[in-house]
Request: fold
Amino acid sequence: MGVCQPAASVRARGRGRVQPGGSRGRAGRPRWVRAMPLRLRGKKKGKSKETAKLVESEQAAGARGGGEAAAAPPAPAQPRARLLFHTQLAHGSPTGRVGGFASVRELYEQIGQAYRIPAAEIIFCTLNTHKIDMDNLLGGQIGLEDFIFAHIKGSKKEVDVLKSEDSLGLTITDNGTGYAFIKRIKEDSLVDQIKVICVGDHIESINGKNMVGCRHYEVANLLKGLKKDQTFKLTLIEPMKAFEMIEPRLKSGTLSEAKISKGRETLRLRSKGPATVEEVPSEIEEKAIKKIDDLLETYMGIRDIELAATMVEAGRDKNNPDEFAVALDEALGDFAFPDEFVFDVWGAISDAKQGRF
Reply:
């Protein structure tokens, strides 16, 4: 995979305190030790000042009955406009509209209904481009003016791979609905020599073991654990591709750089709880998110902007590694993060806050 195996979890010693005389992590930071893996619990989050729930407002209840002399009831709330997004199938289709979804799964269902296809046909979506462009992959946030392109299943292919090296050179991500796919192939890596394996391919099975429903880190760990000098079989499904003569569906300038730059609002999709409309992350937070996404690839062989953004959010108002550890423990589970990784994540957040990037 081109990444180091996550270290085994360390037993708790003093619950998040720096051990006297202990070893030091990257960049000379003291290695902070705490119990792993993290446990999934409900996330406690302060209100975001620019946040509103994505719901259609209902009419306020009528005036209270009774003949008592009382203050006039509040005026009925004005209905909130329903957020609508334009969408197309990436290989070519008419333009449709979707809205009112609170998760990626609901978005896929609406796209499926709009084009009369099963939602399970969608591998992933990109924003503002029909190309298989992993830099514009739909993650946990959608700009209110973004155009959504859905990439659906195309041809299936089976590939026998001789694992002649420890590292395959793959980075894996997933779409949040059970499909893991290839986000990056390292140049000159083992897999890079196998031209039939492409970025965007959904990994359906490995040696006959069904990977549908698995998270990206589970697939990455399985690939990493395959024995060297043995052959394994990958069953892949590539995204359906447009004909070469088909031009991008948006005319030049329709979505200008100004419209997708800083300062606008985004729809934040969450794995738990309602979607919310928020301001885009600040420049400082964006730098921290990018750094943490790089750390995820280094430690776990995955890329996940949504996960990185959740970590940045968990550390937003925290002042030290202990507070961050508690917040991260409450927010995320099922990830056996090694202690060094957690400390490096806090270091990235702290560096971004202090302008050291």
